Amino acid sequence: MDKIRIVGGHQLNGSLPISGAKNAALPLMIASLLTDETLTLENVPRLRDVAQLTHILSNHGVDYSVNGKRVGEDAMTGQTVHLNASTIVDTTAPYELVSTMRASFWVIGPLLARMGQARVSLPGGCAIGTRPVDFFIDGLRALGADIEIEGGYVNARADKGLIGNRVAFPKVSVGATHVVMMAAALARGETVIENAAREPEIADLAECLIGMGAKIEGAGTETIHIQGVDRLTGHTHRVVPDRIETGTYAMAVAMTGGDVMLEGARADLLESALETLRGTGAEITATNSGIRVKRNGSGIAPVDVRTEPFPGFPTDLQAQFMALMTRAKGTSRITETIFENRFMHVQELARLGADIHLDGQVATVTGVETLNGAPVMATDLRASVSLVIAGLAAQGETTVNRVYHLDRGFERLEEKLRRCGAEIERIAAS
Ligand SMILES: CC(=O)N[C@H]1[C@@H](OP(=O)(O)OP(=O)(O)OC[C@H]2O[C@@H](n3ccc(=O)[nH]c3=O)[C@H](O)[C@@H]2O)O[C@H](CO)[C@@H](O)[C@@H]1O
Ligand SMILES: C=C(OP(=O)(O)O)C(=O)O
């Protein structure tokens, strides 16, 4: 497997482009299953998860092309994708395809709404907690689906179609909100989702669904009203910029020092993280073309952080922020409230010399003067990139193994960072 080699100690300066959001592109691509007309998505990032989802959608019969050209299985060479699900040939999403990526489970909503049946393997994804699917099942049952779980598969049927209802989630769930919203778009009557996720990717999906003819109000707030329609149509939609990629590079600049323009980034998508970064001493300026992040010679101030559903500090930036705090001038407390097992980076950051004490869901990070390069490995996407951030500031050489995870969610990471002066390269597996 490829590795990333970093020689730390270089400031980041210049500009780098922010890609379309992985976590918006995935549900948007899945929404193509709701219509027999073509859904065109612009600004889709070239990522392993996106490529994997094309396999899953192809298996259901979705015709997929990039920039107008039919592409081979592994080619993600363009940014505008056309998805056409005029004929759904299979309503089963098999284990082999679903087990590597959590979001692939979400096909259950559109398949059930349009075809009246779906058989979907229980999902995989980042190993950051147990990640059950009970909210999905309860939500779809509320819309009238018969669901049973057997042999690792969720078998769902709605022979007479789905019927709108009230769905109140016991806890905020991004995925369950996406799925119930997509299913309800083609249900009969009105659905009201209460305690809905407010993440920007929900509003982005809703905007696209509305463009396809759905009747949705309140996406982006905690109550979403959906009036079901008989059919949805084709549409062209541009994927929202990736707020997690934005926050990641902002933290990298805060870590190394320097001055970088994050082109195309939108500050309104990550206010809480940017405010936290300001607290550490970074200068953040939102402009029409992006977000400028700057830190000069001043040290990094410690800031306590608690992950929360949007608009709070995102769990997907927790690992990166912890990497930054390893060099703060003082002690910070980082509390993870979303996933019960999202601290796998702690042990790896310690290899670089970080001083972190874990107590349940709270990590206490005492900043050290220097980190020292070392071989490291992470078992999930954001943990992997936290090691890249630490490596950029560490003395000497850091090798990040299992780059597979980074490729799931960061488009051209080495290229973007190299453009800003980082000494970073990919070492291809021999
Ligand atoms: C592809 C994608 O967009 N992934 C994001 C999505 O994941 P994902 O949609 O999987 O995360 P959820 O918002 O559903 O998870 C939030 C919490 O709810 C729990 N839960 C969820 C569903 C359920 O049926 N039962 C249940 O108990 C989860 O275990 C977790 O503790 O939101 C997470 C939280 O912002 C992010 O970290 C992920 O990057
Ligand atoms: C946890 C993540 O992804 P997934 O939900 O696909 O595992 C992530 O994007 O950080």
From TrEMBL:
Single GO molecular function: UDP-N-acetylglucosamine 1-carboxyvinyltransferase activity
GO process annotations (BP): cell division; cell wall organization; peptidoglycan biosynthetic process; regulation of cell shape; UDP-N-acetylgalactosamine biosynthetic process
Protein's UniProt keywords contain Cell division: yes
Catalytic activity: phosphoenolpyruvate + UDP-N-acetyl-alpha-D-glucosamine = UDP-N-acetyl-3-O-(1-carboxyvinyl)-alpha-D-glucosamine + phosphate
Main enzyme class: transferase
Modified residues (2-(S-cysteinyl)pyruvic acid O-phosphothioketal): C126
Record key words, sorted: Cell cycle, Cell division, Cell shape, Cell wall biogenesis/degradation, Cytoplasm, Peptidoglycan synthesis, Pyruvate, Transferase
Function (record text): Cell wall formation. Adds enolpyruvyl to UDP-N-acetylglucosamine.
NCBIfam families: murA, PRK09369.1
Similarity comment: family membership: Belongs to the EPSP synthase family. MurA subfamily.
Name this protein carries in UniProt: UDP-N-acetylglucosamine 1-carboxyvinyltransferase
Lineage of source species: Bacteria, Pseudomonadati, Pseudomonadota, Alphaproteobacteria, Hyphomicrobiales
Gene encoding the protein: murA
